[in-house]
Each structure stands twice: as C-alpha cells, then as structure tokens.
Amino acid sequence: MSVSNRLAGLKARPKSTSVEEVRLVDEVGEARGFLDRTPRKKPGRKPSPRTYQLHPKVFPEIGEAISVEAERLGITQGQLIEQMWECYIEGKRG
Predict the structure, then answer these.
(1) Is the pTM of this model over 0.70?
(2) CA angle 6, 7, 13 (to 5 degrees)
(3) For the chain, give me the number of helices (H) and strands (E)?
(4) How far apart are CA 66 and CA 71, in angstroms?
(5) Crossing angle of helices 60-73/77-93, nearest 10°?
(6) CA-CA distance, 26 to 94, in Å (whole number)?
(7) For position 91, what pLDDT does the model report?
C-alpha cells in the first residue's frame, strides 16, 4: 500500500494573532466576498414588536368564550384581551 507524499511537506505553524494581522486578514476576506460569520444574536425567531406576551390560565369555558367572541369580532384573542383591559381601566376611573 502506498501513501501519497503530497501532504508530507505540510507543517503546523503558529499564526500571528496581532490586532494588525487580524485586521489585514479581515480586509482581504471582505474584499474577496467573505462575510463576517460571528453570531449577532441568539439564533431563532425574531422578537415580536409586542413585547408583553400573556399566557393566562383560565377555566375551559371562559377560554372557549374568549375564543368564540374574538372569532365573531374578527380579531385575535390578544386584541380582545386588550379591549377588555381598556374597559376595566375605564370602569375603575369612572
């Protein structure tokens, strides 16, 4: 069995990690179309513009009633809860 000699001349050599060397390598890579691959944020779903998500635990018949009413009005359950909250606040003031 013969082993190829093409890799025989390769040696591991320490690479320079100075700030200047890293900057130069980055510039050359960007000029040749390579992009920065460092992670920007957590992977996954992008954050929603609505920052407060509610996950209320309600009795099944109440949850069903909210679902039916939201569907009847053509809005989401969250929007219905927002409207109910506004009514609650107005009642407290009133």
Answers:
(1) no
(2) 140
(3) 3, 0
(4) 9
(5) 100
(6) 64
(7) 94
